[in-house]
Design goal:
The complex is a heterotrimer of chains A (about 260), B (about 220) and C (about 230). Helices cover about 80% and strands about 0% of the residues of chain B. With about 220 residues, chain B is mainly α. In chain B, α1 crosses α10. By secondary structure, chain C is an all-alpha fold. In chain C, α2 packs antiparallel against α7 and α5 packs across α7. Chain C is globular, with a radius of gyration of 21 Å. The chains are: A alpha/beta (about 260), B mainly alpha (about 220), C mainly alpha (about 230).
């Protein structure tokens, strides 16, 4: 369980990234932080593994304040997946995946073997093991990123817009894979995105973050869709009048009559 | 053309080539000066450049001090130290180290500083210590730039090492100054050609090393183009 | 200190002589390097060869070049043409690489857009590619200018007047102040030329100042984040 207790973050130039925010992300669930860019959601994520230190407040993992833990050990115990994969360009796929286990002292051969197994878990052909990141497509790089995040078998996985830079079809594919993997592994996942559709697809719980790092609403996708807390959430969800949908035959259409979906 | 012939004859004459003050021995001496100055510059410049590149602090200091060092006329530094330290190797060596330092420093700094932010960020997020980030991520990724810096430092020193003779040290510059004094164009041209040849050989050697380094640290930079 | 006060006119003369050797060489470097760099960036295959040749020229030590060049040009060793040609040769060798990189770095999108709007090759080069490469070209030219100014003194070993004369004369006569003032004046000339180029750049590229401010702000924010991390 990850708990944010009254955390704030302000920078020297006065910008307030997060203000007095409290939040609990339950174990073995995917909690999605969703909000427009610059709302402080990434800052929140990075507080968990101490890449960002809160100006005030605490972040606790299983009731232990992360500030009391050694940052290096803390980070090694938490998986991290980021947008542009952040793969080390001078290392092959397996070596990238094996990074954390090797840092923790696992013998290189063993770590590589496990890395190859993980490649299969995330749906990568093991023949790519010896390739360098720039020899992979964007979607493949992200899969490597996910495998790397899982390599040390962490309880917690932090995902910072991991599928933000790939095209919609690949993104849908990656989302399905993530849900499948989560079904098998049951990690505690904190997932950041600006895409509400992605949040609804993946989240056991959704936290809508408004500009300035304030929680606009939190709940299950059903709760939020059924009962948006205010106008901000309504418009963020695309539920405002101007975009109210209705059914026309088998098609779902918007107020101008344009089809946006089809009934199953 | 007859100058070239004369220069060739000068080089071919065993009297000029062998012995402790022949051009063979002077060439070895010249290379020794170059290597020594470059190694000293690396010992100072690489740690300093890495420190600044990794911490992203004192960047302005590095940029402005390397710029200022480039504006220093080497002949001036050689003669100044010559007057202060007297005739010998110390003065020119100090000047050469000062000359080589900016390039090494800039190469070390730029290589580390220029490592992709994403990769460094990810490395930190995965729990690498700052030392591990420096030596396992930034330094390997910056290797080509560091090598480029060492390369230009070496070539600069190699070229400038001719000035050592002006303040009484050895090297191939001996023949240049002797030739200037005695109006011996064959001697000047011949020794010039040896220096140019050395420079080209060293440059090519670095080119080969550069390719090997790029092969062992394939970062894909430039590969996609 | 006394030496400097007693020899102000010597220093001034040497400074002007220095400037008049350096400036033509710097201009020459730029004017020659641009077409060569254009060729290198336009015809990719020539790039490797041209840059290799430039690299080799730059590898030639200066003193030997000052001595060898007159034999090729047919001038005397002490001729100003010889000195300017030698300095210019280094300048070109250095500038070609910077200029080729600068021209290459111009976004292909901008060039494509220009072509799509109907720019011909020549107008596209002068109207789009060259101005967009401007900041990088200026950065390269500043390095060339400073290294040219600091290279001039070597010509004093051949007997050509410049601030280098203060160095050789001071060394031979054992006058520390003379050597020191030679170094100081050379640095001052280098800084002055450098500032002149920066000013010229502001004049010719007014759009860059806004961009520089924007970049500076962005870097501070990034740095803070890095420090915070």
């Amino acid at each position: 369980m990850i708990e944010f207790r009254n955390v704030s973050k302000s920078y020297d130039d006065g910008t307030l990234a997060v203000s007095d925010l409290s939040l609990i992300a339950a174990s073995h669930e995917i909690t999605v932080l969703v909000g427009s860019s610059g709302c402080g959601k990434t800052t929140l994520l990075r507080m968990v593994n101490r890449l960002v230190t809160p100006t005030s407040g605490q972040v606790l993992i299983d009731d232990v304040d992360v500030a009391d833990r050694n940052p290096v050990e803390l980070r090694r115990s938490i998986g991290y997946v980021m947008q542009n994969s952040g793969l080390l360009p001078h290392r092959t796929t397996v070596d990238n995946i094996a990074t954390v286990p090797v840092l923790q002292g696992t013998p290189a051969r063993e770590a590589r073997q496990r890395a190859v197994d993980l490649m299969e878990t995330v749906g990568l052909d093991p023949s790519m093991a010896r390739r360098y990141p720039w020899q992979l497509s964007g979607g493949q790089q992200q899969r490597v990123g996910v495998a790397r995040g899982l390599a040390a078998d962490p309880n917690i996985l932090l995902m910072d817009e991991p599928f933000g830079a790939v095209d919609p079809i690949v993104r849908a594919d990656l989302q399905r894979e993530l849900l499948r993997i989560q079904g098998e592994l049951g990690k505690t996942i904190l997932f950041v995105t600006h895409d509400i559709a992605e949040a609804i697809t993946l989240g056991d719980k959704i936290v809508i973050v408004a500009t300035g790092g304030r929680i606009a609403q939190q709940g299950t996708p059903e709760e939020i869709m059924a009962d948006p807390a205010d106008d901000f959430v309504t418009s963020f969800l695309g539920l405002d009048e101007a975009r109210a949908l209705h059914v026309s035959g088998r098609l779902v259409v918007d107020p101008t009559g344009r089809p946006v979906g089809r009934l199953a | 053309m007859n100058f070239l012939v004369a220069a060739w004859e000068w080089l071919a004459d065993p009297v000029n080539a062998s012995g402790p003050s022949g051009w063979g021995a002077r060439t070895v001496e010249h290379l020794w000066y170059t290597a020594l100055a470059t190694v000293i510059a690396c010992l100072i410049g690489i740690p300093l450049g890495y420190a600044v590149g990794h911490s992203h602090r004192f960047r302005t200091f590095i940029v402005s001090s390397t710029g200022a060092a480039r504006a220093l006329p080497t002949l001036g530094v050689v003669t100044l130290f010559g007057l202060l330290l007297g005739i010998g190797l110390e003065a020119p060596m100090l000047a050469f180290v000062l000359l080589a330092l900016p390039s090494v420093l800039a190469g070390a700094y730029a290589g580390v500083e220029g490592a992709p932010r994403d990769a460094v960020d990810a490395a930190r997020a995965m729990g690498m210590t700052e030392w591990q980030i420096l030596f396992r991520v930034e330094a390997p990724l910056g290797m080509p730039l560091l090598l480029g810096g060492i390369r230009s430092a070496t070539l600069q020193v190699l070229a400038t090492a001719t000035l050592a003779a002006y303040v009484g040290a050895g090297g191939l510059g001996r023949f240049l100054f002797l030739g200037l004094k005695t109006q011996n164009y064959a001697m000047m041209l011949a020794s010039s050609l040896v220096v140019v040849g050395l420079a080209i050989a060293v440059d090519l050697a670095f080119e080969i090393v550069d390719r090997l380094v790029r092969r062992s640290f394939p970062t894909g930079v430039g590969a996609a183009v | 200190m006394n030496w400097i006060l007693n020899n102000v006119s010597t220093i001034t003369d040497a400074t002007w002589a220095h400037v008049w050797l350096a400036l033509p060489a710097i201009v020459l470097s730029f004017v020659v390097a641009i077409p060569v760099a254009w060729f290198a960036s336009r015809f990719r295959r020539s790039r490797f060869t041209l840059l290799l040749v430039a690299g080799l020229i730059y590898a030639i030590p200066s003193l030997p070049l000052f001595i060898v060049l007159p034999l090729i040009l047919g001038t005397s060793v002490r001729s100003l043409v010889n000195v300017v040609a030698a300095l210019g040769l280094y300048g070109v060798a250095l500038m070609v690489r910077y200029a080729a990189d600068a021209l290459d770095a111009v976004s292909t999108d901008a060039l494509l857009a220009a072509t799509a709007m109907g720019y011909g090759p020549l107008r596209r080069f002068f109207g789009v590619q060259l101005p967009l490469a401007g900041p990088a070209l200026l950065a390269g030219l500043r390095v060339v200018a400073v290294s040219t100014v600091s290279l001039v003194p070597v010509s004093a070993l051949l007997g050509v007047n410049s601030l280098g004369m203060l160095l050789t004369d001071g060394f031979q006569r054992g006058i520390l102040a003379e050597v020191a003032s030679g170094i100081g004046a050379t640095v001052v000339v280098a800084v002055a030329v450098d500032l002149g180029l920066v000013g010229l750049g502001r004049l010719l590229m007014p759009w860059e100042r806004a961009a520089a401010r924007r970049d500076a702000r962005r870097t501070t924010v990034e740095d803070e984040q890095a420090v915070a991390a």
